[in-house]
Write a structure and sequence with these properties.
9 strands, 2 helices, mainly beta, 30% strand, binds zinc ion, single chain
């Protein structure tokens, strides 16, 4: 290249329509959308119960079977979100955390909402319960967790409902 070459920028917008598949994990999203069930998987060899579900056990690489998990669990770790993408900007501040559902051996990263969002409300060891959007589309945002003592208040709101 000679000294004559100069970088320049062209500003433009790229719009892309696309589809993607959840593959072997599709059943989790279908059951979430249609039946408000939270499915994990259990390894056919070592018996480890995975949530989020793994089609094959990540420890021993053997196939895993679908199992329904309880919709209650315990917070393993959490934080309060103040900065986020445009998809969640209206919800801030909100909590996120790793939740270990009762019966699961691994933890699921998910939103934790509270009427009174202070760190002590969503700290490690607190018990939470899943609340579902009435209008579900088969995505992780179809549900979230709330402190167990707020569950009845959350499911009384018109846009949400309790699980099974
Ligand atoms: Zn295994």
């Amino acid at each position: 290249m000679s000294e004559e070459f100069q970088d320049h920028q062209i500003r433009d917008v790229i719009k892309i329509n696309y589809k993607y598949t959840m593959g072997g994990q599709s059943k989790f999203f279908i059951e979430l959308k249609n039946n408000k069930r939270l499915l994990g998987t259990k390894c056919t060899k070592c018996g480890k119960t995975w949530m989020p579900p793994r089609i094959n056990c990540s420890d021993c690489y053997e196939p895993a079977d679908w199992v329904e998990l309880k919709q209650t669990g315990i917070i393993e770790v959490s934080t309060i979100v103040w900065y986020t993408t445009s998809a969640f900007i209206k919800a801030i501040p909100y909590g996120v955390g790793y939740i270990k559902l009762d019966g699961a051996e691994t933890a699921l990263l998910q939103g934790i909402f509270s009427e009174n969002l202070v760190p002590s409300k969503i700290k490690k060891g607190k018990r939470v319960k899943a609340v579902f959007n009435r209008e579900r589309i088969g995505k992780m945002t179809d549900f979230f967790f709330v402190p167990e003592d707020e569950y009845d208040k959350w499911i009384s709101k018109p846009e949400y409902e309790g699980g099974v």
